[in-house]
Write a structure and sequence with these properties.
CATH class of the largest domain: Mainly Beta
Shape: globular
Low-confidence stretches: 1-15
Helix content: 25-40%
Structural class: alpha+beta
Mean pLDDT: 85
Distance between the termini: 55 Å
CATH topology of the largest domain: Outer membrane phospholipase (ompla), Chain C
């Protein structure tokens, strides 16, 4: 009887290919793990199996190094992970209500339209919060405090406003040049809305498109925790017109002009130590003609780089960012904390505190301290 039981237990263990693959993987028997992971991935679409296959192909563990196959398995892991969420139910509900289309090509077009084949996803936090500042903010001249040409209705900006951010990215994974890269395009828009005064004007909107490539290091640099390097280009502007005039100070913005913009190239190194994630970002501003430059000294206030530390504790996610300015001896800091709401695991309470320079482009050279609380749908 004991022999039959042991035989039955052995058959059950071998029937679970994923279990055996995990055993071989953690014993570093990668050649034995690969076929079992492939069977598990193809039969049950386990994202964990697809991720491990991607890692082994990327790092030549148990097989020859193959960046293209690594990218394919990483992509499958991401797709299968999404399918486990409530979005799967959403798509199934939508597809169940659709009438058949006239041909296969039309059907494929409809599926692309509904499910988003371009794979847009969140980049930076997408949030909506009420923000309170320690000073009257800057913006359109007629609404500013002690304006020389005040609004005819006597309206002035107040310290409390609605602040929201929309941030999306699209990624393309490739093995170009013989190693894996993630090429990305992203767009972030941060809006500052004086919703609590009559006519509710938008005080400032900052537009931040960027292009960047991520080069993951896998486990090759685990001795120092380095997980990847990002190289990118970023444009930031507020879309306001230029007004001819003199600069209020040497190197400062043109008097009366609300236009602000700058372009930069950046390098970012990403590290992980257990529950701590760190991003060290160094940028170089692309120089412009001083006569047409909206804000020649913006880098002196905004800094020459940033250090971001993220700590994850269960459902809490805490971000702390510091922007030091070496040339001017200044520093700005931001703290953000998010936690899921009782209504949904995908909607979060969101707290943000900021002190320093560069809260928004229009007042980049003014020190501002503010706090905000609201909700976010990504983090």
């Amino acid at each position: 009887m004991k022999l039959l039981f042991l035989l039955f237990l052995t058959l059950c263990l071998y029937a679970d290919g994923f279990f055996m693959a995990e055993t071989h993987f953690y014993n570093e028997e990668y050649e034995k793990a690969i076929p079992l992971y492939i069977d598990s991935a193809e039969q049950s679409q386990k994202p964990e199996a697809a991720y491990k296959l991607g890692w082994m192909y990327q790092n030549a563990k148990g097989t020859a190094q193959d960046s293209e196959k690594a990218a394919q398995w990483y992509k499958k892991a991401a797709e299968w992970e999404v399918s486990k969420t409530s979005r799967k139910d959403l798509y199934e509900t939508i597809f169940a209500t659709m009438n058949p289309l006239s041909d296969d090509e039309s059907t494929n077009t409809a599926l692309q339209h509904i499910s988003g084949k371009f794979a847009l996803r969140a980049y930076k936090p997408n949030y909506l919060l009420i923000s309170h500042s320690n000073r009257i903010p800057k913006g359109e001249t007629k609404f500013e405090e002690n304006s020389p040409n005040p609004d005819s209705n006597g309206l002035e900006y107040i310290r409390t406003e609605l602040q929201y951010q929309i941030s999306l990215r699209a990624d393309y994974v490739t093995g170009l040049f013989g190693f894996p890269q993630i090429w990305s395009a992203a767009y972030t828009q941060t809006s500052y809305w004086q919703i609590f005064i009559d006519s509710a004007p938008f005080r400032e909107i900052n537009y931040k498109p960027e292009l960047f490539v991520t080069i993951p290091f896998g486990h090759k640099a685990d001795v120092i925790g380095l997980k990847g390097v990002i190289l990118g280009f970023k444009h930031t502007s507020n879309g306001q017109p230029v007004t001819d005039g003199n600069r209020t100070r040497s190197g400062g913005p043109v008097e009366g002009s609300r236009s602000r913009s700058w372009n930069r190239l950046y390098t970012q190194a990403c590290f992980q130590w257990d529950n701590f994630f760190t991003e060290i970002n160094i940028w170089h501003r692309i120089s412009e003609d001083e006569k047409t430059d909206d804000n020649p000294d913006i880098e002196e206030y905004y800094g020459q780089g940033s250090i971001k530390v993220t700590y994850i504790y269960k459902k809490f996610l805490i971000d702390a960012i510091v922007n030091p300015s070496i040339t001017k001896g200044l520093a700005s800091g931001q703290l953000a904390i998010s936690y899921p709401t009782p209504l949904s695991e995908d909607v979060f309470f969101y707290f943000q505190g900021f002190s320093g320079y560069g809260s928004s482009l229009i007042d980049y050279d003014q020190k501002v301290s503010k706090v905000g609380f609201g909700i976010s749908i990504s983090r």
